[in-house]
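User: Sequence recovery, please. Input:
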């Protein structure tokens, strides 16, 4: 900034000035000091504009940084929400899977019991039929064996 350079020049000029013997005054080159003051006046608006521009630029950078930070926070919250939601979905899916598996196991057990009951019923009926058949076969054999002894007699052999 040019204005700082001009103020430094003004300060240097005053420090080099001749002191007046009585009092705290000093003799300075009036024309030179007035010239520096004029240069300060000319430079001041230019430096002020530069400072304002830098300040505005700084504010813009800060606003962008705030905006980006806010956007990052929003994204982080959304991602956290997604993770939470997906975790809840996963938990819900696991619970449903567990319920379905339990129901399937219960249904399989019910079907096994029904199949066993049916098999017991059918085998019991078959056993009853086989026992009846066995009885019929035994009776038939006994009949044949008992009539076989009498076969040696002629049929109608009691006739004269």
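Assistant: Recovered sequence (160 residues):
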């Amino acid at each position: 900034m040019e204005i700082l350079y001009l103020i430094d020049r003004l300060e240097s000029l005053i420090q080099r000035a001749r002191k007046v013997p009585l009092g705290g005054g000093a003799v300075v080159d009036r024309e030179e000091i007035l010239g520096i003051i004029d240069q300060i006046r000319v430079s001041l608006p230019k430096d002020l504009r530069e400072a304002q521009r830098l300040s505005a630029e700084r504010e813009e950078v800060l606003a962008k940084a705030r905006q980006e930070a806010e956007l990052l926070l929003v994204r982080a919250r959304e991602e956290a929400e997604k993770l939470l939601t997906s975790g809840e979905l996963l938990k819900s899916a696991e619970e449903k899977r567990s319920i379905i598996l339990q129901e399937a196991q219960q249904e399989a057990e019910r079907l096994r019991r029904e199949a066993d009951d049916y098999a017991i019923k059918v085998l019991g009926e078959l056993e009853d039929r086989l026992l009846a058949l066995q009885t019929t076969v035994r009776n038939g054999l006994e009949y044949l064996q008992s009539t076989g002894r009498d076969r040696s007699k002629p049929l109608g052999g009691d006739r004269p």
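The chain has a mean pLDDT of 84.
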